[in-house]
Amino acid sequence: MFKILLPTLLLFIFSSQVNAQKWTDAEFRKANTAANASYLSNEEKNIVMYMNLIRIDGEKFYYTFLEDYINNYNAKVRKYRNYNELRITRNNSYYTSLLKHLRGVKNLQLFYPDDKLTSLSRSHAQDLNRNNLDTHESSNGDKFSKRLSRYFPNKAMSENIDFGYSNSLDIVCHLLLDCGVPSLGHRFNLLDQKYKLNTVGVSIQPHPSYTWCAVIDFVAQPAYYSNNE
Questions:
Q1: Which H or E element spans position 173?
Q2: Which positions ≥6 away from 200 have C-beta within 8 Å?
Q3: Which CATH number fits domain 30-219: 1.10.357.10, 1.10.3720.10, 3.40.1550.10, 3.40.33.10?
Q4: Is 144 left (phi over 0), alpha (psi -120 to 50) or beta?
């Protein structure tokens, strides 16, 4: 689910060491803007890192970490009778369109975490859990833009919500593929250049219907802004 409105190094566990080796230490350090964000869990920090790796080199991400995700996903769903319907094939339209979108994505502006924005993301994820909701609206009816504007008035902003995953790579790749979402809104948030989204809040919380939910909020701050400064 997504909406958009205008106005300490970690020990990473990679699903494929071979693919991880195709990325340089310098690229990982550059992507790891959340390393010192003590208010984030390791998986939440890794969400920021994976989103930044996409923006550093989109095509390389497609052929490495996204491949890992698809292979692992297909292996997990093989046990189901409707495996042929569930699996992600190489001619899947969302998979093939993604390569077109990722070609040329290189060294885009990175995402930086923010504690206030993360607090808002966490509050909404907990609200979704507490009230068994799957919407951008709070249980009191507030739209995401109203929630975020209290701390970030007159900013471009957006929100991605993912259900069913607690693993950072799974969450990011699920949103990046955006299967079943014709508008590709989650994908375009991750690849954003138009609205200059550069500040993120991230929270992974349990959910009664989907086991897990992850809320990622995006805000456009002045270009010089960094939570680490």
A1: helix 168-177
A2: 48, 51, 111, 112, 113, 114, 117, 118, 216, 217, 218, 219
A3: 3.40.33.10
A4: alpha
Overall pTM surpassing 0.85 (yes/no):
yes
Token representation of residue 140: 């009191």
Cβ contact 161:2 at 8 Å: yes
**Hey, which residues does 106 pair with through a beta bridge?**
57
DSSP H stretches of helix in 10-64? 17-20, 25-31, 42-56, 58-63
Q: What are phi and psi of 214, to 5 degrees?
A: -130, 125
Domain boundaries along the sequence of the chain: 30-219
Task: Please give the Cα distance from 206 to 127 (Å, whole number).
Answer: 11
Q: Which residue has the tokens 């902003």?
A: 157
Averaged pLDDT, groups of 10, the chain, 229 residues long? 45 47 92 98 98 98 96 93 91 95 96 97 97 94 92 95 97 96 96 96 98 98 54
d(CA 106, CA 83): 35
Q: H or E stretch including 204?
A: strand 199-207
Rounded Cα gap, residues 79 and 26, in angstroms: 39
Contact 29, 198 (CB under 8 A): no
Please answer whether residues 7 and 154 qualify as being in contact, where contact means their C-beta atoms are separated by less than 8 angstroms.
yes
Amino acid symbol at 122:
R
Six-digit token string for 151: 């701390």
The answer to whether 221 touches 113, Cβ cutoff 8 Å, is: no
Helix axes 168-177, 42-56, angle to 10 degrees: 40
